[in-house]
Write a structure and sequence with these properties.
Length: about 80
């Protein structure tokens, strides 16, 4: 199996997603707050100043929005 291009980024994403799930499971943060965190993160990349990282920011925003759409960072019944 080929290695992903950004191993550190993939690991960071997995760790952050696990932390969000744990915070929700332990009732530290409600689902609405977790969704808000993800929306804020996506917006930060969607509204980043134009420059050399435009493609990267667009890809990061798209990934975060796909996580939101899939409901992966909150356990839903």
């Amino acid at each position: 199996m080929p290695l992903p291009n950004d191993i550190a980024g993939t690991a960071a994403l997995a760790i952050c997603e696990s932390l969000l799930l744990a915070l929700n499971d332990r009732k530290v943060l409600p689902e609405q707050e977790i969704v808000g965190i993800l929306k804020d993160a996506a917006a930060a990349h969607e509204n980043a100043p134009a420059g050399d990282d435009d493609a990267l920011n667009a890809a990061v925003a798209a990934l975060i929005n796909s996580i939101l759409a899939g409901g992966n960072s909150v356990r839903r019944p």
